[in-house]
Structures are given as structure tokens and as C-alpha cells.
Amino acid sequence: MYKITLLPGDGIGPDITAATKKVLAATGVPIEWEEHLAGELAIPQYGTPLPEHVLESIRRNKIALKGPLTTPVGGGFRSINVTLRKEFDTYANVRPARTYPGIRTCFDNVDIVMIRENTEDLYAGIEHMVGEDAAESIKIITRKGSERICRFAFEYAIKNNRRKVTAVHKANIMKYTDGLFLQVAREVAKDYPQIEFNDRIVDNMCMQLVLRPEEYDVLVAPNLYGDIVSDLCAGLVGGLGVVPGANIGDKVAIFEPVHGSAPEIAGQDIANPTALILSAVMMLRFLGEQGAADQVENALAAVIKEGKTVTPDLGGTAKGMEMADAIIEKMLK
Ligand code: NAI
């Protein structure tokens, strides 16, 4: 029996979590969920968006599946997502973006995995006002942080039969911070001669990705570029509703979709559960449950290809739960 912490999140989180739980139950993999409130919904009951018992649950189980959590803009509490990544030092954010036949996109052969550094860069949150009319944010890049994420990217490439790693940076302008990242990436690449290595300046990277995405395989980037470029990759394969993610550290792994809480479509069960289901597939693979992972992914791909029971973002009219039922029907065939 796997004990897994489940944070359904807010906004569309509870809808897509219900659909995902149902699909996972149909795999027969024994999972005991420890379900907890976090974020805005936790404040009235616990007085904090991230109660200690939630952290304790993740610490104990070492694995969590998480829905999206709303972050107040320009004030209020600090992003729970960023806090969780810091607390558990889940330094590698893995975001695969691949095309599924049936989803209308400009390209039909995208298969890119963004490995984003998750703990440093401008996301370190070291910001302050300088007088009343200026603000300053400090960008942190360390050799240790760069080395472990670059090594993670190459190890990922080897384990997943990938051929190439591309480092994304702006070292021509930020010669110290991004310069250090690039220097370390080049050093680490030398230990993996079997994997092709190149690098791209982030602005050129964006252009290349929308012109020739099929040339790219595994990308590794500092935090902010990784965040932005992974959304671009999501756009290449049909949008945020279909892109999963994982935050992986040495002790804890938290699986979550790339998208946010989409408050404008919350509570109607019209959000696409695909990204959370695919995050759960990544979790099953992490647990070594390859058979169940393949079963869910193949059934999901078949439902998308058929296009009959898909949510509005994919051009259908189905509810998220109806999509889950269609996936289960394919799994059990
Ligand atoms: P968002 O990802 O929630 O929405 C962007 C667009 O994608 C919207 O049009 C939305 O309707 C659509 N969308 C997202 N997920 C979808 C799904 N599963 N099915 C169908 N359509 C989907 O990004 P936004 O609006 O910038 O952020 C909303 C809130 O979510 C903010 O408070 C933000 O801080 C938070 N957020 C949380 C994340 C997390 O918990 N990991 C990640 C990103 C944002």
C-alpha cells in the first residue's frame, strides 16, 4: 500500500482531483490518500495557508500529488508552491510536453522535456524597495544548484532514452549568474559523452521552439527561463490543460500540473483533468508502477485521439468526470 499526500488545491483543483482519483483507483495500484487542505481554503480553519500537519504529511510519505493553488498577486501570502519547493528542496522541476494525436496544434511531433531549476534564480524572492520609487530583486545562481540540476538533466536523458540536452541561458548579458550556469552545464556535459549537448540564449530558444520544436529534446534552465519556456512548450502541444509536472528532490517528490487554479472555470467540472492525470502517471512511473502508468497513458491518449469525450479546451463538450469515465472504459477493455 502506497501512502500518498493529496492536496486537491483550489479553483479547478477539486474537480480535476476527483477525476484523477477515480482513474487511479481503476488501475488497482493500492494507494491510501492522505488528503489535506492548503492555500486559501485552509486559512479559515487553520489560520495559515500551509499548516504544519500538511508539511508533516509530505515529510512522512515522501510523495505528494498536488492540484493548483491560487497565489494572491502583488501582496498577501507567499506562493505555497514556491514555499513547498523550498521546504523540501525539490530542486528539479520536470515538465514533459508532447503532442497527443487528436489535439489541434501547429506541430505533430513535439516531445520536449523541460528540466527547470526550482530553488534559485530570481525566485529566491530576495526583493526590496529602494526608496519609494524603485525596487530591487536579487538573482542567485550557485555552482551547487547549477551542477545538481544539470546532472539531473543528463541522468534523466540517459534513464529515459533521450539523445540531447540543451542548456538555456542569457549568459551573453548576465555574465556572472547565467555565465556560471552555462559554465557548469558545459563541465557536467563532459561526463556524459553519449548525450549530445548544446546551449541556446533564451530569446533565440523561444524563436527556435516555435519554428523547429522537433529539433529539441531535453532542455535544462535556471528557474525563471524554465518557467516561461515550459509554458511556451505547453502552448506547442495544446495548452496548459495537457502538460504535467513533477518537483523532485533527494527526499521528496511532489507531482503537479503546470497550470494554475483557473478560477474563471472552477466548480463547473469543465476543466481538463489531463494534466493532473499525466502528473499521476509520472508519479506511478516514479513508484515503479510502469504497467499501470502505461495503462492510464495509453487509455488517455486513445480518448484524446477519438475526440468524443473531451473537455471544452480540447474542442469537446464533456465534463472532466465524463472524460475520466471514458479513460477508465478504455483501460478496462
Ligand atoms: P492558469 O493556468 O490558472 O490559467 C491560464 C489559462 O489556462 C486560463 O485560460 C485557464 O482557463 C486555462 N486552463 C488552465 N488549466 C486548465 C485546465 N486544466 N483545463 C482547461 N483550461 C485550463 O493560470 P493563471 O490564470 O495565470 O493563474 C491562476 C491562479 O493559479 C493564480 O493565482 C496563479 O498564481 C495560480 N497558479 C498556481 C500554480 C500551481 O499551483 N502550481 C501554477 C500556476 C499558477
Characterize the structure shown.
The chain is of the alpha/beta class and 333 residues long. The chain has two domains: 1-103 and 240-333, Isopropylmalate Dehydrogenase, CATH 3.40.718.10; 105-237, Isopropylmalate Dehydrogenase (3-Layer(aba) Sandwich). It contains eleven helices and twelve strands. It has helices spanning 13-25, 43-46, 52-61, 80-87, 143-159, 177-189, 202-211, 223-236, 274-286, 290-306, 320-331, and strands spanning 2-7, 31-35, 63-66, 92-98, 111-117, 127-129, 135-137, 164-169, 196-201, 218-221, 246-248, 253-255. The protein has a ten-stranded mixed sheet, with helices on both faces. Strand 1 (2-7), helix 1 (13-25) and strand 2 (31-35) form a beta-alpha-beta unit. Helix 1 crosses helix 9 and helix 5 packs parallel to helix 6 (177-189). The longest helix has 17 residues, at 143-159. The mean pLDDT is 95. It binds 1,4-dihydronicotinamide adenine dinucleotide.
Low-confidence stretches: none
Characterize the main sheet. Answer: 10 strands, mixed
CATH architecture field of the largest domain: 3-Layer(aba) Sandwich
The CATH topology label of the largest domain is: Isopropylmalate Dehydrogenase
- Helix-strand makeup class: alpha/beta
> What gyration radius follows from the Cα positions, in whole Å?
20 Å
Helix run count: 11
Shape: globular
Q: Which features would summarize this protein structure in a list?
A:
333 residues, alpha/beta, Isopropylmalate Dehydrogenase, ten-stranded mixed sheet, 12 strands, globular, binds 1,4-dihydronicotinamide adenine dinucleotide
